Each structure stands twice: as structure tokens, then as C-alpha cells.
Amino acid sequence: MRSSVISSVAFVVAPGGTLLLITRVRDTGSEPDGPPWPLSDSELKQFGSLGLQQVEKLVFLESELDVKQVRIEYQCDSLISESRYLARK
């Protein structure tokens, strides 16, 4: 289900558009604990395989809870996005 949601989020980014993702993160091997459910490194990599190029990544700790978070700016590759859009029609 998580993979399907990631694909849906990536799909709504317009060709040449920007996605700003702010989320809690966890190690790939650890079980998600939530809500909110943190994303793993392997789940974050799925955005790249769906035509989004990472522009900037900031890792930080949520000050009150000492929880690892990440803020990632992605840019949508217009050629990959357009071909993906046409394939879904």
C-alpha cells in the first residue's frame, strides 16, 4: 500500500514541477511505528525511480521528541513524467 501511495504522490507532480516532502524517517530494516508512520530510505528512493530528481535534502531532529526527520525538495523530470502520464491514459 505504501508503494502505491508513493506512486500516486509522484504522479500528481506536474512536468517541471516541485514536490516538497517533509516526513519522519526510519532505517529500511526497522518496522514503521506510528502514526505518523515514518518512511524508510528505500521508500524515499522510490520517488527517484518515478521521475523525481532530488534537488536538496535536509536531515534534522524534531526538537521536542528527538525524532529524525527529513525535508527533501524534488524536481519532476518533464520527459519521464509526460511519458508516465501518457501511459496511464
Structure write-up:
The structure is a single chain. This protein has 89 residues and is an alpha+beta fold. Helix content is 34%, strand content 36%. The chain is built from 3 helices and 4 strands, in the order αββαββα.
Content-based structural category = alpha+beta
Low-confidence stretches: none
Helical residue percent? Answer: 25-40%
Helix-strand sequence: HEEHEEH
Cα distance spanning the termini: 22 Å
Strand tally is 4
What is the averaged pLDDT score? 85
Counted by DSSP, the helix tally is: 3
Query: How would you sum up the global shape?
Result: globular
| Largest sheet geometry | 4 strands, mixed
Q: Give the strand order of the largest sheet, numbering strands 1, 2, ... along the chain.
A: 2-1-4-3
The radius of gyration is: 14 Å
Our estimate of the beta-strand percent is: 35-45%
Question: How is this fold's topology laid out?
Answer:
Layout: H1 2-11, E1 18-26, E2 39-40, H2 41-49, E3 52-62, E4 67-76, H3 78-88
Parallel strand pairs: 1-2
Antiparallel strand pairs: 1-4, 3-4
